Amino acid sequence: MKNELKKLEKAALAALEQVKSSADLDAYHTKYLGRKGELTGLLRGLKDLSPEDKKTFGKATNELKIELEGKFKMKQNEFEHAEISKSLKDEWIDLSAPGTTTKRGHIHPLYQVQEEVERIFQQMGFSVVDGPEIESEYYNFEGLNIPADHPARDMQDTFFIDKKADKDEGRLVLRTHTSPNQIRAMKKYGVPLRIIVPGRVFRNEATDASHEHTFDQVEGLMIDKDISIAHLKGVMLEFLQRLFKKEMKIRFRPGYFPFVEPGLELDMSCIFCDGKGCKVCKKTGWIEFMGCGMTHPHVLRAGGIDPDEYQGWAFGFGLTRLVMMRYGIDDIRHLTSGDLRFAEQF
Ligand code: PHE
Question: Residue 332 sits in which domain range?
Answer without folding.
Answer: 109-133+179-343
